[in-house]
Design goal:
InterPro entries: DNA/RNA_pol_sf (IPR043502). This protein has 337 residues and is α+β, with helices and mostly antiparallel strands. It is built from eight helices and 16 strands.
Length: 337
C-alpha cells in the first residue's frame, strides 16, 4: 500500500492487510467497515478535557458522557476515513456547541466532540476528539410522550380533502374490526388483534437489533447496579402477572411469525410516582425493512381535544388531576394466523 502523508513529496510503501469489521450502532443497525491493518496508526490520542462551563451545559441538557473527560491520553485503535464516516453521522439529531467552542456532533454511535476551543488567556489551540452518550430524561413533559403526541398530530394533518376522507374510512373499518374481535376472558384481561395492514412488506424478526440494543444498555449502565436490578424486577413482575410470556425458541416454533421489540429504560427522578419505567421501541427496524409501526394501522385518535380540556379547566374553582398506572398492560394480543 502506498501512503502519502501531509507535506510528503513522494508516497511511502508499507505492508498492510485488508480486513472487515462488523459494527453495530446505538439502534442496533449493522455496519461493515473495510479496514487496513497497521501496527502504529498515529500518535496517542488525548480525549477532550471539559471545563466546568461545558460540564454544566451537559448536565443542563441531560447529556451523559461516556468518560470523565479528564484529558486521558491513549492510542487510537481504529481510524475511519470520510468515505466511511458519513454512514455514521446522525443527520436527524441536533448538534450542540459547548461554551468552550467544542461541538457535539451527533453520530449513530454517540455524540462526537470536535473542533478547537475558543482561545482564552493565550491558551494554545488544541484539536480534540472524544464521544459522549445522551441519556433520556424529562423536564415539564416526558420526551417520549411528547414524541408520540407530535407524531399523532402530524398523522392527523397528513390527509386533507379526499385523502382525509380516505383516512376516515380506514379508521372506521379499523374501529369496526376492533369492536368485532375484542374479547374479555375470565374477567382478567381484554384480548385484541393487531390492526395489521392488508398489504405490507414482510416483517423481520428484529432479533439481532433487539439483542444489540440490550447489549448497548447493559454497557451503558454496567456500573449502576440498582438501576439494572429495577430493570430486572420489572420483567419478573410482568412475567409473574402473565402480562408477558417468554418466547418459545424451540425448533418447531420457527415456522410462526415472530418480531422482537428493542426496549430501554426511561428515568424520571423528578416525578413523584413513576421514576423508572421500561418503554418498547416499535419503530425500530433494519435498513430498508419495515418496523412494527409501519405494518399496523394507527387507528382513529380517541384522545379528547386539547382546547376542550383547557376550557373545562376554566369552568370550576378546583381541579383534580389523576393518572393511570401502567396503562395498556391489561390488553393482551390474540393469536393471529
Amino acid at each position: 500500500m502506498n501512503v502519502r502523508t501531509f507535506g510528503a513529496e513522494r508516497p511511502a510503501k508499507t505492508q498492510s492487510t485488508t480486513t472487515y469489521l462488523q459494527a453495530w450502532d446505538a439502534d442496533g443497525v449493522q455496519h461493515q467497515l473495510r479496514l487496513y491493518t497497521q501496527d502504529n496508526l498515529t500518535k496517542n490520542f488525548s480525549e477532550a478535557k471539559l471545563d466546568e462551563e461545558d460540564l454544566q451545559f451537559i448536565r443542563r441538557n441531560h447529556i451523559q458522557t461516556s468518560t470523565q473527560h479528564t484529558g486521558i491520553i491513549s492510542p487510537p485503535q481504529i481510524l475511519i476515513g470520510c468515505d466511511q464516516l458519513w454512514s455514521f453521522i446522525n443527520f436527524e439529531a441536533p448538534q450542540f456547541t459547548l461554551p468552550s467552542g467544542l461541538i457535539l456532533i451527533p453520530t449513530r454511535l454517540s455524540y462526537m466532540v470536535s473542533r478547537q476551543r475558543f482561545l482564552r488567556n493565550s491558551q494554545y489551540k488544541k484539536l480534540l476528539n472524544s464521544s459522549v452518550h445522551t441519556r433520556e430524561s424529562s423536564e415539564d413533559f416526558d420526551q417520549w410522550e411528547l414524541h408520540w403526541r407530535k407524531e399523532s398530530h402530524e398523522m392527523e394533518n397528513e390527509y386533507t380533502g379526499p385523502e382525509k376522507e380516505e383516512k376516515a374510512n380506514i379508521n372506521a373499518k379499523v374501529l369496526e374490526e376492533f369492536n368485532r374481535s375484542i374479547e374479555k376472558r375470565e374477567n382478567i384481561a381484554y384480548f385484541v388483534r393487531l390492526p395489521l395492514k392488508k398489504e405490507h412488506e414482510p416483517l423481520p424478526d428484529n432479533r439481532a437489533l433487539a439483542y444489540h440494543r440490550l447489549r448497548s444498555i447493559l454497557r451503558k449502565y454496567e456500573n449502576e447496579t440498582k438501576l439494572l436490578q429495577q430493570y430486572h424486577e420489572v420483567f419478573q413482575d410482568q412475567l409473574k402477572k402473565n402480562i408477558r410470556e417468554e418466547v418459545d425458541e424451540s425448533h418447531d416454533s420457527f415456522t410462526k411469525m415472530r418480531h422482537y421489540l428493542p426496549h430501554q429504560p426511561v428515568i424520571t427522578p423528578e416525578k413523584d410516582n413513576t421514576k423508572f419505567r421500561v418503554v418498547f421501541d416499535a419503530s425500530a427496524h433494519y435498513k430498508n425493512s419495515p418496523s412494527l409501526n409501519d405494518v399496523v394501522h394507527q387507528g382513529p385518535t380517541v384522545l379528547p381535544k386539547l382546547y376542550g380540556i383547557l376550557l373545562r379547566f376554566r369552568t370550576g374553582q378546583y381541579v383534580l388531576l389523576s393518572d393511570v398506572e401502567k396503562a395498556f398492560l391489561q390488553r393482551l394480543p390474540c393469536q393471529q394466523p
